[in-house]
UniProtKB/TrEMBL annotation:
PROSITE patterns: PROKAR_LIPOPROTEIN. The lineage of its organism: Bacteria, Bacillati, Bacillota, Bacilli, Bacillales. It comes from Cohnella silvisoli. Keywords: Signal. Belongs to the bacterial solute-binding protein 2 family. This is Substrate-binding domain-containing protein. Residues 38-291 form the Periplasmic binding protein domain. The keyword Signal applies. Gene3D superfamilies: 3.40.50.2300. It holds the Pfam family Peripla_BP_4.
Amino acid sequence: MRRYSIAGLLGLFGIFSLLVSCGRGGEIHSMPETQKEIVLIVKSKEGEFWNTVKMGAEAAATEFNVKLIFDGTTDEADVKSQIDLVNKYLAYGTNGLILAANDYTKLAPSVAKADRLGVPVVTIESEVNSPEVRSFIGIDNYEAGRQAALKMKELTDSKGRFIILNFVKGSRNAEQREKGIRDEWAATPGMQVVESAYCNSDSTRCGELTKELLDKHSDIDGILALNAAASIGAAEQLRSMQRDGEIKLVAFDNTPEELEWLQEGIIQATLIQNPFSMGYLGVKTAVEAMNRQSVPKKIDTGTKVIDAENMFWSDNQKMLFPFVQ
């Protein structure tokens, strides 16, 4: 019962309430504070990357004593379903929201709605074009694209014809990674992008598209696959066509399949992120925002180029397997 309700009752039954309180020693017992809740909504509930994000978030939820709800769509291209999920949890009454957005602009109204309701929003992995976002936690995707481009230049002696296998058209991460590649190669005439195509983060479709592109462009020197699904699809197809090693593959992320193919020489290098840290720092930062603490506007979780030579270095092992430390 709220204090103003008690005050109202005292006004009507002053003498009776005074006698009761004296009889009980005048003690007032407050209800214990309930555990706060944070909802983590990701692009897709499937895949190694998002499972690792979840592990990091769960570790932080235990440490900071908050209840964590993990949810997401089954398709990274399904923006409407993600918006519906955000609205559902806002109606339910969560205390904080962590969002890996499926769209840079279309999720902005949902973030504004959360802010009006007093629910702080932290974004991870993908940004949202909204000033109401308290903090973004993730990599610099433009710089990651540049690093991928530099590695491919090294692998091919700064010349060749290349395919960019991208994921979701319109995704800010996809656009920034590809822009980093193209800008890095702008001053190197020998590095030519013959085609860029999207496979919607479906590894089966990414493999099919890889075959279509290689049938169309038989003299390709390399493929840059810009997320895990694209990397897995491209690697499987190169192996199936027996063109692995002949066509250089620079990938993204560090699924178990990718690390195995890295050792086998099907993938020459991969750009790794730190999804465990994204999940952990997402919860930590959301808790701080819920407690009205100042939080950084951006936290760069870093990326690194991993190849067969450096993948067993101790520092790189910590990035590849952060959850076993």
